């Protein structure tokens, strides 16, 4: 039987209808129990360079015909909605409807502290740069020289215990990518249940408590709410609990 290695997204809790998580409304659907597949019919395309080759060489353009496949499998597990894009299905999803850092939170709860293989970080500076560090063997956050005062953890990859039954490696960002192949919807639902349980755990606070100190806010609704709250506090004149930090360090005069 054929298998897939799913990349899992958790939909925001207030969204219950799968139709609300897509950028487009013309998708076709297939329903089976708590599972729904949304897909866009694929059409064959011929790239422009194929015609050039056809004119210059004795080669048929039929050799270069291709099509992109777009599908998203949605399911309800533990009263939460999950989305698993297939092919180019990621481009159908409205990412503002997904839980930010779902995969990161699940992964850091599943990866032992000494088995990290890759981390992605960023700094909230004026010229903020994204950084990726890779280790050839199991490594700790300290060995990666993470600055717990300034670095924001965006992604993590590491080896996991076989007891989790999710494969050998977890890759966590906004999504959670598992390396265990599955050949049925029932088994897929089991994988999602384990992933959601990892996400709900607070075990990460033992070794990664610092990641809650600071986080990027990418949700437009939250950004607007925070901006309104900041404006309200500034107008009130009560600045005891407000801290302003310049984006660059200034030399003392």
Quickly list its features:
alpha+beta; 10-stranded antiparallel beta sheet; 253 residues; 25% strand
Write structural notes for this entry.
With 253 residues, the protein is α+β, with helices and mostly antiparallel strands. The chain has one domain. Helix content is 22%, strand content 25%. It is built from five helices and ten strands; from the N terminus they run βββαββαβββββααα. The protein has helices at residues 48-56, 102-110, 185-200, 205-208, 220-236, and strands spanning 7-10, 28-32, 35-40, 70-77, 80-87, 116-122, 130-139, 152-159, 169-172, 176-178. A ten-stranded antiparallel sheet has the order 2-3-4-5-1-10-9-8-6-7. The longest helix is centred in the last third of the chain and has 17 residues, at 220-236. It is globular and about 75 Å long. The mean pLDDT is 87.
SS class? alpha+beta
Kindly provide the radius of gyration, computed on alpha-carbon positions and rounded to a whole number of angstroms: 22 Å
Q: N-to-C terminal Cα separation, in Å?
A: 71 Å
Low-confidence stretches at least 5 residues in length (pLDDT < 50)?
none
Tell me the major beta sheet: 10 strands, antiparallel
Portion of residues in beta strands equals 15-25%
Percent helix: 10-25%
Number of helices: 5
Strand order in space, largest sheet? 2-3-4-5-1-10-9-8-6-7
Q: How many beta-strand runs?
A: 10
Overall tally of structural domains: 1
Indicate the overall shape.
globular
Task: Please sum up the structure shown.
The protein has one domain. The chain starts with 6 loop residues before the first strand and ends in a 17-residue tail after the last helix.
